[in-house]
Amino acid sequence: IPEKKKKKTVRLGVNVEKVEFHKFANRLRVHGVIESGMDIGSYHTLNIEQDTQLSIVKNWKSDQLERIKEAEKASKRPKVIIVCLEEGDADIGLVRHYGIETYSHITQSSGKGEGTLREVFFDEILGQLLTLHTGSESVVIAGPGFTKEDFVNHLNKKEPSLSELILVEDTSSIGMSGFQEVLKRGAVDRIMEESRIARESKLMDELLKEISTNGKAEYGYEQVLQAHNYGSIETLLIADEMLRTKREKEDIDEFLISVENNQGRIVVFSTDFEPGQKLMSLGGIAALLRFKVQ
Fold first, then answer.
1. Contacts of 213 (CB under 8 A, 6+ apart)
2. What is the pTM of this model?
3. CATH number of 11-52
4. Strand residues in the chain grouped as ranges (E)
């Protein structure tokens, strides 16, 4: 029987010609010609997944680097907070880009305090949420039984401003296993997706309203460029598909930098969702203006 060969990890340098993101497999496929390592000159496809180590050698544009830095900062802020609780015990977790970080464990005290021991327990959880929630998209309240519903009622009475952030999920346990149950049920993915769609839908509604009244909006590449020449762009809306296409044909980054230098905001719409598809039907690019361009 021939001896089974062991797989050996090698490092390759590939001159990238094509990049594809397979969202359902959560995998980035990078295709190009090998320039360093084994089989130089051959075509090869790299499958990039989470935790894959790679180096990117590229002439970075300043706005691209700035967006990477912004994304890195944003990834460190918890977008979703998970509270898993049952009678007498609660765990708070923060959803980070690398997974869930356990923030605290709270146990109901047996000592004295204002109100019932249960109310004191709920107040302690609520106090930590008030400290953490700034900048978060949502707070998931989860756990077995009815304690979570009782806590939500307590929260609604004491801090109604938090109510719109609350999502309730059933789990069979608390702690890290409870956090993982919340992730497996897709609650966090739904929150993040709905949050992006909501932001883009609001901008699209505003754009269509301005267009319908012949107001402060332009759409189509030439019209948007003209508006920019007047320094009128307040918010630039561009579809990701349009951005990719333009970057293949011309240097659109110079235009984007110029918009930002004129205090314009740039929002890249995903064509996976309806607002982005609507934007593509308008030419893939539009702008909300500070003032109407004649």
1. none
2. 0.54
3. 2.30.30.870
4. 13-22, 27-36, 43-48, 80-86, 89-96, 99-107, 138-143, 166-170, 217-219, 233-239, 265-269, 285-289
Pick the CATH number of 76-185 from 2.40.50.100, 1.10.760.10, 3.50.50.60, 3.30.420.60: 3.30.420.60
Q: How many alpha carbons fall within 13 Å on the CB side of residue 100?
A: 22
Report the pLDDT averaged over residues 213-231.
Answer: 93
* CA torsion angle 226 228 229 231 (round to 10): 140
Each residue's pLDDT tens digit, 223-269: 999 999 999 999 999 998 888 888 777 778 888 888 988 999 888 88
Interhelix angle for 62-76 vs 253-261, to 10°? 70
Q: Count the helices and strands in the chain (H runs, E runs).
A: 9, 12
Q: Take residue 142 and report the two structure tokens written for it.
A: 């989860």
What tokens were used for 76?
A: 């460190």
Locate the domains of the chain by residue range: 11-52, 76-185, 199-289
**Spelled out in words, what is the top-level CATH class assigned to the domain 199-289?**
alpha beta
Dihedral sign of CA atoms 197, 200, 202, 208 in order: negative
Q: Which residues pair with 29 in a beta bridge?
A: 20, 47
pLDDT score at 74: 64
User: pLDDT at position 58, please?
Assistant: 85
| Per-residue pLDDT band at 76 (split at 50, 70, 90) | low
